[in-house]
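User: quick one, fold this
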Amino acid sequence: MASYGVVTPPPERPLTQAERDLLQSDRPGYGSCSVVEVSFNLVNATVGAGIIGLPFAVYHAGFFIGIAVSVIVAILSQLGLYMLIRAGQRTNIYKFAMLVEYLMGRPGYHFLNFIVFFQAAGACVSYFILVGDTIPVLLTLYFPQYSIFANRSLVIAVISYVFILPLNLSRSIGALARWSILSVLCLPVILLTMLIRAPVYAPEHRAPLTWVGSDIFGALGIMAFAFACSQVAFDNFRSQKDQSSSGWAKSTTLATIMSWFVSMAFAVLGYLSFGVDVQPNLFLNFPNDDPIVNIGRFALGFSMLLTIPMGFYPTREAVQKSLGFETADRQPTKMQHYIVTFVLFTVITAAGIAIRSIGQVYAIVGGFAATTLAYILPAASYLVTRRAVPLEDEAAKKPLLAHDPPTDAASSSSSTSSSSPLPSPSAKDNVAWSDESGTGRAGALMTTRWSWLDMAAVLLIIWGFMVMIFSVSGALRSSK
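Assistant:
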């Protein structure tokens, strides 16, 4: 089983932050974040715009079935995250697109990049929609003398380039860990304002406690969108200090538990307060001049500002891979990195300004892209790599930095250089894996004995296709 553990640079040549950022974005062995920090990163990527639509999903699924299904969706999403990293450990591949290329050839590589782009960019657009539904409302209410604040498009554009763009300039998603903690800390504020004010409006609405709703699969699409974060799985894994399977299981389990409790507390409270009248964006059910609700609106808008980068990083990575700027043995130059960042950010911001219907974004992006990324591809990767022979990690032997000499398992510990070489973690240069029984070794074929995880992977694929077909078809029918 691949186990990188904690990598500490030798005292004679410590990594600079820029060097660690570059290496961490490319390969395992240079993680700097704790299990808790990575968990908050995953929660921040998970509990984004989708949480606002969960009361709407509970209404369509039925109250009791909605809660039960949410547990299943959360567990399956966590299982998909674990399977994806296990597949990477089996093959020595730690980038989603390259793993799918290994499994499906070059067409699979481009297909995955498209799906990641569709999912992550769609998430960014939904976050921008929520920013547009919250911040301009507050600015107009509390600063009525400035009519410019009523211009939703202008407010989003200014906020985007002044506050959000700087967070997207780093190469590694690990740089967002502390911002993610701040974003997640906004969620209790949002929930508290809902808890205080939603019951006040509850008598005006009917909230039947039904078992089965009118559109279970449409609700599943929204929930898949709300709990999916596979597009940032490898980014977060590479940023974690403890890069063992057990360390990753701890991170994903903790993140899933936190995400589910926060999300479903919001969903249940929202549905019980507004019932059959609940909107895809729950805050649209409240009047604009409620001061306590507006605290929650501000917390939501601020949280979305910090969550947009979590969707932007995988979007940019997919574009860079499609353009050939990022491959197995090279990273984009500074010029390529910044050009892609600025152009892509401008396009996504423009889409977030132009699109207003967050409900359709939930259903289509969740039903198509989220099910593919969270269920189908991780489970398929796990099954196909049951008999995988790990690839030699050639990318790790090629220098990313000007003074980082090529290394291999035999010479990394003994090589000398007059340019003070960067540390090359010896554990990473001799990657081994094992099957779930712990008896495998590098270079051997995996056991053919089926485990419960193999059976779960088969069911995960079936579940993913079922949710995709019914939720997307339902969303397209409702849009006509």
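User: anything notable?
Assistant: Confidence is low (pLDDT under 50) at residues 1-7, 405-447.
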